[in-house]
Write a structure and sequence with these properties.
The structure holds 2 protein chains of 2 kinds.
Chain A: E1 5-7, E2 10-14, E3 19-24, E4 31-37, E5 44-49, E6 55-58, E7 61-65, E8 71-76, E9 85-92, E10 99-100, E11 104-109
Parallel strand pairs in A: 2-11
Antiparallel strand pairs in A: 1-3, 3-8, 4-5, 4-9, 6-7, 7-8, 9-10, 9-11
Chain B: E1 5-7, E2 10-13, E3 19-24, E4 31-37, E5 44-50, E6 53-56, E7 65-69, E8 75-79, E9 88-95, E10 106-107, E11 111-115
Classes of the chains: A mainly beta, B mainly beta.
């Protein structure tokens, strides 16, 4: 069974700080997606990365797909309270569709 | 554009009872997914439909769970009989088509099931 481990599991930081969330697997994925989920809602797609080594930026969020396509990171610069939520990575491959990671719960304090 | 609709939003039942969830995907979306999200975990794919055919149901506990997609549009997920470990949020998602490896899924708000 493919697994996507995320770290840290919980993160509480002050507004303005930077943070990085990691998503790791021993398996290779064809693509990897990052989602944010708020309480009482479904996950919302933030980005999809498909090429090893690919870096994508979305305002203050920077996403990187590992060269070997087994891992990914999400970096947030100058975090704001509106960034609070559950961050999920999800990988896809030829056999397995949309394996979700264990999640990182982020709280940004004003 | 309307999003993915799910009902009910909350359901509380006793173990061994039956329950059904309904999902109305975004209009025109060919692919529909049902996920189970246990508290503190990421969603787990239960079943994936392409139009009204099943693409993947490898993680669906078929002895108690069943799902159908009516005329390739709405879908229902049923649990019969429910167990305590079925307590979770059941998420429905849809996508335009299965673009290999990079399709965008749009999720509904989920149904929170509590089994007592």
């Amino acid at each position: 069974t493919q697994l996507l481990e995320q770290s840290p599991q919980f993160l509480s930081i002050q507004e303005g700080e930077n943070l990085t969330v990691y998503c790791n697997s021993s398996s290779v994925f064809s693509s990897l997606q990052w989602y944010r989920q708020e309480p009482g809602e479904g996950p919302v797609l933030l980005v999809t990365v498909v090429t090893g080594g690919e870096v994508k930026k979305l305002k203050r969020l920077t996403f990187q797909f590992g060269d070997a396509r087994k891992d990914s990171s999400l970096h947030i610069t100058a975090a704001q309270p509106g960034d609070t939520g559950l961050y999920l990575c999800a990988g896809t491959s030829g056999t397995y569709k949309y394996i979700f990671g264990t999640g990182t719960r982020l709280k940004v304090l004003a | 554009e309307a999003g993915v609709a799910q009902s009910p939003r909350y359901k509380i039942i006793e173990k061994r009872q039956s329950v059904a969830f309904w999902c109305n995907p975004i209009s025109g979306h060919a692919t529909l997914y049902w996920y189970q999200q246990i508290l503190g975990q990421g969603p787990k794919l239960l079943i994936q439909f392409q139009n009204n055919g099943v693409v993947d149901d490898s993680q669906l506990p078929k002895d108690r769970f069943s799902a159908e997609r009516l005329k390739g549009v709405d879908s229902t997920l049923k649990i019969q009989p429910a167990k305590l470990e079925d307590s979770a949020v059941y998420l429905c998602a849809s996508s335009l088509y299965e673009q290999e490896f990079s399709d965008t899924q749009y999720f509904g708000p989920g149904t929170r099931l509590t089994v007592l």
